[in-house]
Amino acid sequence: MEFRIYDASAFYAGIPFASSDSGITSTLIFEEIQHIKKNHGAIEILLSTGRLKILDPTADSMKFITEQARKTGDIQKLSIADMSGIALAFELKSKLITDDFAVSNLAKNLRIHVEPIMTKGIRDVGRWIYYCAGCKKEFVGEEFCDQCGNKLNRKLIKESFKKNHSHNN
Ligand SMILES: [Zn+2]
Question: 153 C-alpha to center of ligand 1: Å?
Answer without folding.
Answer: 10
